[in-house]
Amino acid sequence: MPSLADLRRQTLVSSADLSLIYSDYIVGAAIFDLNGLPKEYFTTPESDSMIWVQTIFQALGLRSLLMSSLQLEGFRHATILGVEYSAIVVKQRTHYIALLIQPQAAIDAAFIAWAQTFEPDDLKHNSRFKIV
What we know:
Layout: H1 4-10, H2 15-24, E1 26-32, E2 38-43, H3 51-70, E3 77-81, E4 86-91, E5 96-101, H4 109-117, H5 121-124, E6 130-131
Antiparallel strand pairs: 1-2, 1-5, 2-6, 3-4, 4-5
């Protein structure tokens, strides 16, 4: 599968098509409330392990600690790069969404912007995902 950056360079891709392409790179998802507590988990046949959610939970706890102790505002996203997969956590209006991403996906500004508007309910209607 070509990287997202390669696909964007090779062709002009519509935003709807780009959304489908981005969705193909997701192998797991977790929804957290604004306090950082997990609410829903989604897995795919490519990755049915939920161990990565613990790392995201810890990252959200660290974010909360840093924001309160350093009085920082405006958290938008965090990226966690791993050997087998990467993850992105974005803040949306009513929750955080964490997406486990295949390693060949380029997590760039366009991907982050897409993730910030991604509708978690889409996962419930996608046959690749099952709710855990």
